[in-house]
Amino acid sequence: MHESRPMVALDFPSLRDVKNFLLRFDDHEKLYVKVGMELLYQEGPVVVDFLKFQGHDVFLDLKLHDIPNTVGSAMKGLARLGIDMINVHAAGGIEMMQQAKEGLIAGTPAGEKVADLIAVTQLTSTSQESMQHDQMIMTSLEESVLHYAKCTDEAGLDGVVCSAHEVQKIKSVTRPDFICLTPGIRPAGAAKGDQKRVVTPEEARTIGSDYIVVGRPITRTENPMQAYQTIKNEWNGHF
Ligand SMILES: O=c1ccn([C@@H]2O[C@H](COP(=O)(O)O)[C@@H](O)[C@H]2O)c(=O)[nH]1
Q1: For ligand 1, atom 18: residue with the closest CA
Q2: In which pathway does it act (predicted)?
Q3: Is 150 annotated as catalytic?
Q4: What is the pLDDT of residues 27-42, one digit of tens each?
Q5: Residue 155 main-chain phi, psi, to 5 deg
Q6: Do the bridges between strand 116-120 and strand 159-161 make them parallel or antiparallel, or are there none, so unpaired?
Q7: Which one is catalytic: 52, 63, 150, 169?
Q8: Complex confidence, ipTM
């Protein structure tokens, strides 16, 4: 699939900052937003309630990674928030991912759609060198990502977080509809910051990413609405 809206990473410390940011957009603009640890740990679930009430779709990017029982129970609670997508770390293992899925299904209120559940392979801030040195995984980075993608598929999840560089191979070893959500998006010339495996929105489209996640190139600009529209146009091939 191709989600036409770039997912906006709401990496802010407070709900007040989120509200100020959203004021820069037209009222009718319904976004697909990503809520991560920074915001959720400061504000709690109220932030999700607010965003859903405003009509936005929400990816809860908490990257759960713990023993299977703990992750399963946490998922059961999080499922009640009415989120659209949520994730875990594939490094937690197949059993952990299976329990995450069971918890998500068990916690989803009757009649509501179960959120997409995806797993992080290797963070886009990780290079092959840092992976080998820090994690002592001595394969290539691509092999590690493909291995985690296959484990994620085996566990019955919907897809993975990866860099766009790995999308085509992941789909060839899993299935075409296996979700590949790709952060590490940088318009040409934009600062990479801590990201290592980056592509432009246009490259992500031609490669076949299903979702792109964009934070600072939208949230840390003078005109977020304009930056969002420019990235959205590039992502959709409208120049
Ligand atoms: O591998 C990953 C997984 C998650 N992220 C998250 O995406 C955004 C990217 O923000 P930028 O400002 O565009 O770099 C951020 O919230 C990360 O936590 C990721 O970058 N890579």
Answers
A1: 36
A2: Pyrimidine metabolism; UMP biosynthesis via de novo pathway; UMP from orotate: step 2/2
A3: no
A4: 889 999 999 999 999 9
A5: -75, -10
A6: parallel
A7: 63
A8: 0.99
